[in-house]
Amino acid sequence: MRLSGLHTAAVALCIAGAVDAQVLISELSFGHSGRMNPSGGSSIPNFVVSGEPQQPHVLSNRLVLTPIAPGNQRGSLWSDSILAQSLWTADIEFRATGPERGGGNLNIWLARNGDKDVGSSSIYTARKFDGLALVVDTHGGSGGMIRGFLNDGNIDYSQHHSVDELAFGHCLYSYRNLGRPTQIKMRQTRENFRVEVDNKLCFETDSFSLPPGNKIGITAATPEDNPDSFEVFKLTVLSEGAGSYTGGNSNENANNINTNHDSHDNHRSDAGRSKQRSEPVDDDEAFEDSIPDEDADIFQTSKTQFRDLHNRMQATNHQIAALFRTISKFQTAEGKNHEATINLINSLNSRLAGLDQLGELSQRVSDLEKEMRSMRNDLGRKIQANERNFKGMLGDHHATLSQTLIDSMPGHKRLFAVVVGTQVLLAAAYIIYKRRKANSPKKYL
After folding, report:
1. Which of 92, 192, 356, 396 is most buried when burial is the number of CB atoms within 10 A of its CB?
2. What is the DSSP string of 233-247?
3. What secondary structure does DSSP assign to 415-442, as a single string?
4. Which residues, other chains included, contact 32 with Cβ-Cβ below 8 Å and sequence gap of 6+?
5. Positive/negative CA dihedral, 156, 158, 161, 167
6. pLDDT of 41-82, one tens digit each?
7. Distance, CA of 44 to CA of 50 (rounded, Å)
8. Are the CB atoms for 281 and 317 separated by under 8 Å?
9. Which residue from 89, 318, 86, 315 is spatially nearest to 196, judged by alpha carbons?
10. How large is the greatest C-alpha to C-alpha distance in the chain, in angstroms?
């Protein structure tokens, strides 16, 4: 795959040529490959997941610290290993989803014995802890706020009368119901500590530097009513390579600082301009931030040679970091495209299954049509046969009835004889009557 080749090339460049390049600490990271557990288990390697009263759900691509329901839930995630480096970058991607006026908070910890001293507590219920806490919530009725808290192990936050006043830095950010993960980066450099949200500066300070030896943890807590669901997609911790600063005061480090003092003074204006930036350098700007080629004869002293080498190494580091960010963006986009393709294939398969059922239904309708046609033909033939039989029977009956009537009727001769005989009898009777009348004696009055 092309991205894998770019990733391999970038790693090779990082190892071969970058003195201050960032290196992934795998035992403190998860989710950077798109899966919580590369082996497919229901746990996160090198981390302990716990919660109360319900356990958080470890899915294939995210960790659900608190569900959308029921409320009054607590979830925590703590690393088994400590962060032994002093210069590092922690990248966390999370998502908060809930009702319109939901509540709850997400806490990102860097604390000694954090799994024991903090556990699944939030910043308001944590007791004495030694380290840093970054809190994401809707403090003060705002749409969202990110605040930083420090403790040296002497302050009991659970008993403090006003925890909110202990924040050393904050920024407003609406993180709820965005429909996408929110990215938070914490950077510990030699100059300062800074927090970025979605590649924009949230706050920074140079008043402290976290020492090595802290455990990394993420906790979430929700109220009883209108709880939020907090999901964690990724936690990656990067440290500087061969040039990592360990926080010690060795003579070698002191000599290097004194030797390079002039070089830093000569570039103080560039560093000042870089420090005044409120947002990180864009990837395209990082690729364009190249140093023009110079003739080798102009480097007459070791200082100028070191200055040129230092500038070129910094430019290389910036370009490699930009390349890593570009690869990460491509991998994220590729993962989203892959997920969309899988969903499309599943939808297509479901529709094809429906088409298969439609074909079976069409076949059944065709068979039913054939059966109906056959039944119609049989019924027509039977009706025609019955009609012929009925006509035959009716014709035979009419013929028999006519013949019977003909046979039962008297002949014409007999009828004529009867008529003539009747007329003769009537005529004879009349004649006899007339004769008798004429011969009878007349009566006179």
Report:
1. 92
2. EEEEEEEE-TT---S
3. HHHHHHHHHHHHHHHHHHHHHHHHHSPP
4. 24, 234, 236
5. positive
6. 788 999 999 999 999 999 989 999 999 888 899 999 999 999
7. 11
8. no
9. 89
10. 202
Alpha carbon distance 445, 443 (integer Å)? 7
pTM above 0.70, yes or no: no
In 3D space, the residue among 81, 70, 79 whose CA is nearest the CA of residue 219 turns out to be 79
Residue whose token pair is 């610290």: 65
Closest C-alpha to 147, from 120, 128, 175: 175
Residue holding tokens 């908070």? Answer: 105
- Read off the tokens for 207: 């008043």
Residue 291 tokens read as 């140093």
Q: Inform me whether the pLDDT recorded for 263 exceeds 60.
A: no
34: left (phi over 0), alpha (psi -120 to 50) or beta: left
pLDDT, one tens digit per residue, over 340-357 is: 898 889 888 877 777 777
User: Could you give the angle at the alpha carbon of 181 between the alpha carbons of 179 and 184, nearest 5°?
Assistant: 145
The answer, yes or no, to whether residue 17 has pLDDT greater than 70, is no
- Between CA 138 and CA 173 the distance in angstroms is 9
- The three state secondary structure string of 377-407 is HHHHHHHHHHHHHHHHHHHHHHHHHHHHHHH
Nearest 10 degrees: Cα torsion 165, 169, 172, 173: -120
Residue 281, classified by CB atoms within 10 Å of its CB into exposed (0-12), middle (13-18) or buried (19+), is middle
